[in-house]
Please model this.
Amino acid sequence: MPDYKVYVLTFPQKILAISVGSLLLFGIGYLFYHQWLLSLLLVPGGAYAPRLLRDYLLRRRRSVLNLQFKQMLFSLSSSLSAGRSVENAFREAVLDLRMLDQEGGGDMISELNIICARMEYGQPVEEALHDFSERAGMEDIERFADVFSVCKRTGGDLVEVVRRTSTIIGEKLDIQQDIAVSIAQKKFEAKALLISPLVMVMFMSLTAGDYMEPMYTGAGIAISTLALAALFLCYLWTSKIMDIPL
Model:
């Protein structure tokens, strides 16, 4: 069963990430030092690139799963309101999501297929939902699984509970998406500010090589090292600021 709290890179992905990261660091080192040996000292930092790629792919996967879960809730609520049973509502949700994802390769569709298969073997749907919520590690999915389980166990109005729950979670996801959109521009500005010193150094090196020559010898190397360190700290700082958990 897939675990949505972790993301495992394939071997080609790791090799590609390390290669791109090492090449990028080598280019930055040569831009600041203009010496092959000093530039090569930065290359081992490329080993950190797979972690960045893994975190990015994990965030993207969880974000897509969150959106698909919202769509599944609305489909489930509509089916239950139309008088379908719980089991048929989950089967209908698979068809609804496939209309949005023609290839049918989404994680939520796979999970619905797993839930439907477990129901075919006689396992209660609430147990399948709890298993999914544990592997997803998302608060909204865990809450929905708990509410659904309590409602099934106590004989409550499942249609109303699912409708209200889907509405509340849907509104929450809408707010999260609005926040993500609002900070997207700030993330772009932060990246532009980080890249601008590199562009400026490259421009000065190409257009005024004699002027930049002292930066590649003697005390200039120390100054370049301090500048690189300050740029790296700015990257960590901005990444921390922009990392808003949704």
